[in-house]
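writing this on my phone so excuse typos. first protein, seq and then structure
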Amino acid sequence: MIRQNGPIKIAAWRLMMEKYQDFMTRFEAEFRARHELSANEFDVLINARPATQVRQRDLLRSLVISRSALSRLLGKLEKRGLVRQEPDPEDQRGVLVTLTEAGVRLCDEAAETNAEVIFAGFAGVTDAEAEEIFQLVSKICPVG
């Protein structure tokens, strides 16, 4: 049906968006069931994970949410004991975010769930095909 509704490039875009939505629905269900996390909360944890501290504004650049949504998410995660927020000594307006030990543990567990969902979704795809998909998608470049 998708291919019948216009040029192939529009159909390809539509298919990618549908697959993305399918993955996001599955992530949301699995993170909630296994870890009591939303997909956005996992996104915050995984993007804060590599550093010992990350500036809130740098974290915002890695996410697809608004500043106010990030503040709310960080407040919820802090209340659960998963992150700590403290003033940035180098920028009085800034906030530093750190995962707690509990946050690191939960992030690691949820990262395993994340990988399981991805591997299940790509079960019918060989490594060579995944490489080809990666190369092809890398060619897509919105201009404007």
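second protein below, same order as before
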Amino acid sequence: MTPRFDAVGLVVSDMAASVAFYRRLGFTFPEGSESEPHAEAAPPGGVRLLLDTEDTIRSFHPEWRPPAGGGRAALALRCDGPAEVDAVYEELVGAGYHGALKPWDAFWGQRYAVVQDPDGNGVDLFAPLAAE
């Protein structure tokens, strides 16, 4: 038996806000997901994104509490190129989301930026820099 990586799950405070944020990034959630306690999106690549409200988690894990302090997890989204990293970052920040790290040319060879979702989870945007 070999377990296989299938999904990333995030606990969210506001399902509607989280679904709206991830839809801006191209995740396709079924209509009505905004008002559900659990929502799933299956983007190309095969790994699903699962969102559950805090109340849903507490329904089966009553002792669960949101973590204190900074986030420890991030989703990494590959963009088609460095210009798309900049464009997506600017679109999200322009829509009112927190830009945690402005786009920059990272020493490891990527255009790289970080925005935060409505719950403060990091969303890394990256693309390989063109070979020179």
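The CA atoms of residues 93 and 116 lie 9 Å apart. thats all i got for now
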